[in-house]
Amino acid sequence: MTSRIVAVITAAVLAFVSVGLPSPAESASTARSRDAGPEQSQVVLVMTGVIGPGSYRQFRRAVARAKPDLIILDGPGGILGEAIRIGNEIRRRGLTTLVDANRSCASACAVVFLSGRTKYMRRGAHVGLHAASFIDGRADAEATDYMASYLRQVGVPRSILRKMAATAPDDISWLTRAEQRALKIRAVD
Hints:
The chain is an alpha/beta fold and about 190 residues long. The protein has a single domain, classed as Alpha-Beta Complex (2-enoyl-CoA Hydratase, Chain A, domain 1). It has seven helices and ten strands. Strand 1 and strand 2 form a beta hairpin. The protein is globular, with a radius of gyration of 16 Å. It starts with a strand and ends with a strand.
């Protein structure tokens, strides 16, 4: 069965697409030990690319129009303030987040992902964090503290926040399996 994907949000473009997600039967071999994945027949919003100026406004419009159940994320990061606003909207609406197979969600994208009520990662997916930076790439301790405060509210353990703050802005600390379990991220095939 397919899920309806109603919009893809990129840096500046909304597009309408449709793709299939595996049904629980296709993941049956792991269904006993892991969650079979996001429910079938739900409305899905795909958000890809850099989170830039106006991304929150674009996201809010797409969510209001589509009323999705699931947000699929794939991106390198972007503007922290926009990401936190998107994350707050995801939390307010109780939406589920997912990083698809062999995709990555880093930096500001990870802030959005971790805001999901239920969080899924497919095989080969990566989620990573690092310290915040000024536009010129220098570490921004104040913005890092702001990000850590927000992530603490969504349940990120202090040990992960310390690791995030210690990771230079030009590097990424990918979540380990143990950290994924601590964050209650559900692995799906």
